Amino acid sequence: MSSKSEALAPVPERVERDLLDLARIRDPESGGWTRTVFSEPYRASREWVRSRMIDAGLDVHPDGAGNLVGVLHGRNPAAPALVTGSHTDTVESGGRFDGIVGVLGALELVRQFAEHDIRLERDLLVIDFLGEESNEFGLSCLGSRALAGELTAAHLDRRDYRGDRLGDRYTAFGLDPSGVLAASGWTAARPLHRYVELHVEQGPLLEERGVSIGVVTAITGIERMLATFAGRPDHAGTMPMGDRRDALVAAAEAVLAVRREGCGAPTHGVATTSRLSSEPGSPNVVPGTVRMHAEMRSVDSDWLSSAMRRLTEEIRLKAAGYGVEVEVEWSRDNERVPANPAVHDAISGAADTLGIAWEPVPSGATHDAVHMARLCPMGMIFVPSKAGRSHCPEEWSELDHIRTGIQVLGATIMELDRTHD
Ligand SMILES: [Zn+2]
C-alpha cells in the first residue's frame, strides 16, 4: 500500500453537507425521507446527484438503464475499469443513509483523489444505480440488474396493484424500455475489473463489537415460501371444536415453526412470516383456506436448504394434526453471493494498513453488489448503523464512521488499481 492512500483525509463536513442537501429532496406527503423510484422527488434528486458528480470532476454518461455513471478517467482507458457506487432511492418512510453513503462517499473520494494529485491507472466508474429498493412491481435493483443482463422483457411486463406495467413506468420516467434491456451491452463491451460498494450495515453487529468497518463475507440467499392451507369452512357456532378443520389454526402453528427455525440458525440466519390471508374471513365461519407468505435468509446455503426441508415437513405434520392439508411452494428470490476472496482481502488489508479495526460480517440485506458480482469480482465495506436500525426515519450512521469507510474505500480502490488478472 502506498503512503498516498494513507494521506487521504475525507472531509466530514463536506459529506455531511451533501447528506443534508440530498435529504431535503423528498416526498413531502410521506413520512421520514421518502424518495421512491420513478417518483418526482427521485427525478429531482438525481438531477442533484448528476450535478454533484460533475462538480467532483466526473464525466457523466447515461447508460440507457437509468443509472448515473460518472467516469473518473485513468491513465490507461483501455484497462478494465474499477467500479464503485450504490443507490439514492429510499423505501417509503426510509432514512438518509442506506445506499446514499455509498454514492456520496464515492464523490468525496473522487474529490480527495483530485486534491492529493492521485491519478489512477484505470478508469473509476461511480454509479448511482436506478431503483435498488424493492418496488410495487416486486423487483429490486433495477439498474444493476439491467447492467448484468438480468432484467428481462417479462420483468417489464409485470404490473403493480393498479395494473400499471413496469415498462410504462420507465417510459414515463423518460427511459426507452428497449434501451433499458440493451444496457448490458456497454458492460459487455467495456470489461470491468473490480466492484467495491460502501454501505451502511443496516444491522447491529458492528456497533455491538465496537468496530467501525465490516468486511462483507457474503450476501444472504433469500428463499420465499407460499403455503396454502386447505381446511373446511363450517359454522363457527355449531361445529364442535374437536370436529373442525381450521386452516388458520394450522397456519398459526406454521408461523411459530418459521420463527423457531430462524431462532435456531447457526450463523446469520433469519426467518419471517410477512402475510396471512384467511378465507372466507367472515366472523361466523371457521377459516377454510389460508395463504401464508414467509421467507428465510442466510449466508449459509447448507443450513438454508436443510431448514427449508425441516420447515416444510413440520408445517405438513402440524397441519395434518388439525385435519388440514397444506401445499408448500418455495421460490428463490436471491442466491447467496459470496464476496470475492481477493477483494475481501484487499479491503481488510487496506483497513489493517490504516490501523482501522474491522470484522468480517455477513450481509442479511441484498444489494446492487449481487448483480455486479455477475460482471466482475465484488466486495463490500460496511459502516455501523446506530442500534442496527434501517429502512426507517431513525436510520443513522456517525459521520466519523462514514469518514473511516471512505478512507478504506479509497485505499482499497488504489490497491485494486494495481492488481492485474
Ligand atoms: Zn441499500
Topology diagram in text:
Elements: H1 3-7, H2 12-24, H3 40-55, E1 59-62, E2 68-72, E3 81-87, H4 100-115, E4 124-129, H5 142-147, H6 153-156, H7 166-172, H8 177-182, H9 184-189, E5 192-200, H10 205-209, E6 213-219, E7 221-230, H11 247-263, E8 269-279, E9 289-298, H12 301-321, E10 325-334, E11 337-338, H13 341-353, E12 358-363, H14 369-372, E13 378-383, H15 399-418
The structure holds zinc ion.
- CATH class division of the largest domain: Alpha Beta
Give the biggest sheet.
9 strands, mixed
CATH topology of the largest domain: Aminopeptidase
The best one-word shape is elongated
Helix content: 25-40%
CATH architecture of the largest domain: 3-Layer(aba) Sandwich
Question: Which stretches are poorly predicted, pLDDT < 50 over at least 5 residues?
Answer: none
Bound ligands, named by name, code or SMILES? zinc ion
- The number of helices is 15
Beta-strand content: 15-25%
Describe this structure in words.
There is one protein chain. The protein is α/β, with parallel strands linked by helices and 421 residues long. The protein folds into two domains: 3-219 and 336-418, 3-Layer(aba) Sandwich (Aminopeptidase); 221-334, Alpha-Beta Plaits. 38% of the residues lie in helices and 22% in strands. It is built from 15 helices and 13 strands. The protein has helices at residues 3-7, 12-24, 40-55, 100-115, 142-147, 153-156, 166-172, 177-182, 184-189, 205-209, 247-263, 301-321, 341-353, 369-372, 399-418, and strands spanning 59-62, 68-72, 81-87, 124-129, 192-200, 213-219, 221-230, 269-279, 289-298, 325-334, 337-338, 358-363, 378-383. The strands form two sheets. Strands 1, 2, 3, 4, 5, 6, 11, 12 and 13 form a nine-stranded mixed sheet that branches. It has a four-stranded antiparallel sheet with strand order 8-9-7-10, with helices on one face. The longest helix is centred in the C-terminal third of the chain and has 21 residues, at 301-321. The site of zinc ion (ZN) has 6 residues, from loops.
